[in-house]
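Hi R.,

Here's the chain you asked about this morning:
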Amino acid sequence: MTTQAADLDAVTEVTSAVRANIERVITGKPDVVNAALTVLLAEGHLLIEDVPGVGKTQLAKALARSIDCSVRRIQFTPDLLPSDVTGVSVFNQDTREFEFRPGGVFANIVVGDEINRASPKTQSALLECMEERQVTVDTTTYRLEQPFMVIATQNPIEMEGTYALPEAQRDRFMARVSVGYPVEAAEIAMLEEHTAHNPLDDLTPVTDGARIRDLVAAVGRVHVSPAVQRYAVALATATRTSGDLHLGASPRATLHLVRAAKARAAMRGRDYVLPDDVLGVTQPVLAHRLLPNVEATMSGRTTSSILARIVESVPVPDADRA
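And the predicted structure, written out as tokens:
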């Protein structure tokens, strides 16, 4: 067995174990769980958006508890300060020097609960650490340990007491997923399993940070052909020229699209990306970055429906050529 084949076997083995662990808490949502694992292996950040009470925080905490690494939770509230997120320099009376006290982002997995209930200024404190994996406080830069992933939950902006995320921050989230309401059978099973005790209490780690770093490196070696690269760029370009969108996908979005497609291919045991891998991650990776124009909004067209129509208009390369 080649080294690459062994690495891909490790990817499928570990992701299967983590998936099974999460599904002990979140049942009946395989697509959401797979999206979270894809973002983890692609070195991205995940935004979970939905109404209260459907399991957004449970999903984030279940993924965090499945990995034996440092985890911090930040409860975003209107009075949360940027220094609570990044850290602050405090003067030590004994040493007569300033000491840096790390904030909530200094962990491998950061769970940001209800991120859009904090002010835009506090939300913006995450921009540097999400993109550059570092924090700058008082002209001093502190590197964040790898792996580093932000899993943020938010309520729809129509909910009372919420702020819309700045476009720059939305663009830093690799994917956005919606948990949705459970089907009847899953909700009945939840009543039986969750009323006696919290299943999160029974979760134990099935992998660790070092193993995740190895898997991320294996995903990085997955091959993307020129035809698939051109296809990803064509999808992004089509959003920028669409008559229904005021804001299309950024170059960062194209990069995230390819990285997520590579992770999806690796989770399926392949060392190359197919056009189907790109299609499979297009909605969660691109939809939250797009802004419909006034005409589209007044007509009731959503970003998801606009994106679906754009995807249909872009020719898919032949599998042989890809």
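The chain has a mean pLDDT of 87.

Let me know if you need anything else.
M.
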